[in-house]
Amino acid sequence: MAYEEKKVRLDMAHRLSLDERERLTVSGVEDVESFDESAIVMYTVKGTLVVRGSGLHIDKLSLDGGELSVEGTIDALMYEAQRRESGGIFSRLFR
Hints:
5% helix; Immunoglobulin-like; single chain
């Protein structure tokens, strides 16, 4: 069986839905870099998205479908200017 590399789907739709500042649903998610109760950093097809707040927890994550749901108090949504560099964990560690 040949090894198949997963390719980034640039045609994936990117949407944000925020309900009452307590539930966020994001589509077009490629990866989650980090998360804790005060911040979640994720890579989307439209750039790096940072979610800040309190009591944050990831309710649902499906990278195959590109869906992420967050619950907690959401204070800010911010896109970072730079896109993620390609490469694995070692390329990020040894910059």
